[in-house]
Amino acid sequence: MAQGDTTDASTSPPIEPVDTPQQRLYNSRVVLTTYPSQLGIEPIPLHWGAPTASARGPVVVSRSQDTFGKRNAIGAGGGSYCIYRALAVAIGALAPNHRPDFTMTEPTHQIGPFPAWSDPEKIVSMDPWGHATVEHYSEFLDQGVDIRPTIAITKAHMKLAEIDDAIQRGFLRRDGEIVTEGGELKVVKVASEPVWYLPGVAQRFGIEESTLRRALFEDTGGMYPELITRPDLKVFLPPIGGLTVYIFGDPAHISDPTKRLTMRVHDECNGSDVFGSDICTCKPYLVYSIEECAREAQNGGVGVVVYFRKEGRALGEVTKYLVYNARKRQEGGDTAANYFKRTEFVAGVKDMRFQALMPDILHWLGVKRIDRFISMSNMKYQAIVDSGIEIIERVSIPEDRMPADSKVEIEAKIADGYFTTGEVPTGEMLKEVKGRNWDEIAH
Ligand SMILES: [Zn+2]
């Protein structure tokens, strides 16, 4: 019998031992999936939305030998980086049974717990106790159960040319608290990897859990058969990017209703954010929000930027560049009127960010009200308001911060419902908003 035919650890016959590197790393039997009633399968209880960390139980997803039978989650830890971990093991750089030494890794700041942490409907796409593994689940770690944090909290300084410029302009001052004498921003950072409570995710999108499971199974190339065979396991760690929170000022102020909160929720646009591509408003908007956040903190409030790894509206950079080409080459040139059409022709949809899960991180942070929301996105606004958080003021990107070639994008978005304090362009006006021609991009 070939290894690929083996479907069940309890019934499959052992394979003749062969002395290959693979043989030394793993058991000879490949366990393709598991079943709820299978011998040796006894998941550690996990009660999503329970009132305390210990009542909730740890999220256990590792397939390491002494944890395998105790797993209570499907997928793999580390988001998309699970693939690099696999590579490290395969080439012998990482022992498959390596356990992290968590000494001195604990959070630098206390955040929460907040009531939303024990509300099974408020937080469904991250583990609210993901940073407190050592604090709350040490008894399991001591027993040898392989549990990994999915959240880490640290602090740092940021040095940005644009912040130096804001100091020069007198918009920010060196106060030693928020902005150092050297012009650096003090920041508290939170990184979070995705942990999906499948019934909650399905409910958020108004679909059946079984439909969600089937789609996840099919569109990951059948990578996680337990999505189908283990309906008793309700938590899935998907192989996607996570998010980072940048906090300017005292994190305790975020949940304090007497303090003002300025916030931006930003979705990754690597070409603009890091490399300064000028076809969109992403980096200028991000920089503007960092300045506004720092200023709010200097005025006694707090600022928060949440950065999601959802490149190119979660369509990815390859799709994004295909769309750029089609936009620039189409008859009549790159116009705001055809902006979304070109994305839909290539991707089938104009956006795959589906903001319904986004507010989870805000509830994890204890946000109740956002005084200044630095975003024009109607989808982000609606998702946040629908989740029970009040938004007092929406702030659009100042006109003078927009690169000329980004007008196509921003005018198309405004016509599509994005927030603006300015004029909403009509169909005829959108045809007039043109980007740079293809032959003007000379290399
Ligand atoms: Zn962009």
From TrEMBL:
Keywords: GTP-binding, Hydrolase, Nucleotide-binding. Residues 1-13 have a biased composition (Polar residues). Signal peptide: none annotated. Pfam families: GTP_CH_N, GTP_cyclohydro2. One of its GO terms (molecular function) is GTP cyclohydrolase II activity. Residues 252-395 form the GTP cyclohydrolase II domain. Residues 1-22 are annotated as: Disordered. Residues 29-219 form the GTP cyclohydrolase N-terminal domain. InterPro entries: GTP_CH_N, GTP_cyclohydro_II, RibA, RibA-like_sf. PANTHER family: PTHR47259, URACIL-REGULATED PROTEIN 1. Belongs to the GTP cyclohydrolase II family. This is Uracil-regulated protein 1.
